[in-house]
Structures are given as C-alpha cells and as structure tokens.
Write a structure and sequence with these properties.
2 domains, three-stranded antiparallel sheet, two-stranded antiparallel ribbon, alpha+beta
C-alpha cells in the first residue's frame, strides 16, 4: 500500500514521509485521531494534513519562518562582508590628503564624463578610492569641475 493513498499512517510512514526521526514523528501524531493496528498506532492522514495546515497558519510558525529568513539573510550578509574584508585595495600613502587638482594616473574627469584606465580589479578599486578621497577633501573644486 502506498503511503499517500492510505487513509491512516503509522509512525514509520510519518518518519519516511517527512524525513524525521521516531520522536518527531510521534510529536506530529500527538493529539490526532488514531486507530490501533496490532501494537502500532496509525493517525488519520486527513487529520494529519489538517493539523499541519493549522500549524502553518499559526502565529508561532509564521514567526519562526520569519526568524529563519532573517537569520539566513544575516548570514549571507556576513559571508559577503567577510569575503570583501579579505580583499586588500592598495592605496597610495597620500590618498587621504589627495585633492581634485592632484592628477590620479589613468583617471580623467570632466563635465558629464569619468574615464578610468585600469589593469585589473585592484587597480580600479585603488583609483576609485583615490578619487573618492579627493572628492571628499575638495568637494567644491570637484563639483565645479563636473558641473561646468
């Protein structure tokens, strides 16, 4: 007899169907209408489905589902942050003092245009970092250059 066609499911069927152990299968079956089959107990398949649907609609289940989603999102953000922290971007010693009028080799900035020549990801990141420092240190000069 196939599990999904049966009107009642014993503990072994519940274990197999949900991929759980003996203890969790008994917890799923607790409080539901059962029949005695020899020395085993079987739960009504429809009662089990109704019980699971009611549990899924309940606030504790929804709260746990949201909590797990938040944990998964946090772990993914931490993984991405950890990967980003392993990358070292070479920066010139004078980067923090750089001004817009200081020439950054391979960076051309004009009204409506930014052109960056680079030799790889680290070189690009380094030049963009130097440009961002110059922008932060000399905003007025930067805004005049790109707006005029």
């Amino acid at each position: 007899m196939r599990t999904l066609e049966a009107s009642h499911l014993d503990r072994h069927a519940v274990e197999h169907l949900f991929g759980v152990g003996q203890r969790r299968a008994r917890q799923l079956m607790t409080g539901l209408p059962c029949i005695q089959l020899g020395n085993a107990v079987a739960v009504s398949r429809l009662a089990l489905i109704d019980g699971l649907e009611n549990t899924a609609k309940g606030d504790p289940f929804q709260w746990e589902r949201s909590r797990r989603a938040r944990v998964a999102d946090s772990l993914e953000a931490i993984r991405k942050d950890a990967a980003a922290r392993r990358i070292l971007i070479p920066a010139a010693p004078d980067s923090s003092d750089r001004l817009i009028r200081d020439v950054i080799p391979g960076v051309e900035l004009a009204r409506g245009e930014l052109r960056v020549l680079f030799d790889g990801a680290e070189d690009l990141a380094s030049k963009l970092f130097a440009l961002s420092q110059a922008m932060a240190n000399d905003w007025d000069e930067f805004s005049q250059l790109v707006e005029n």
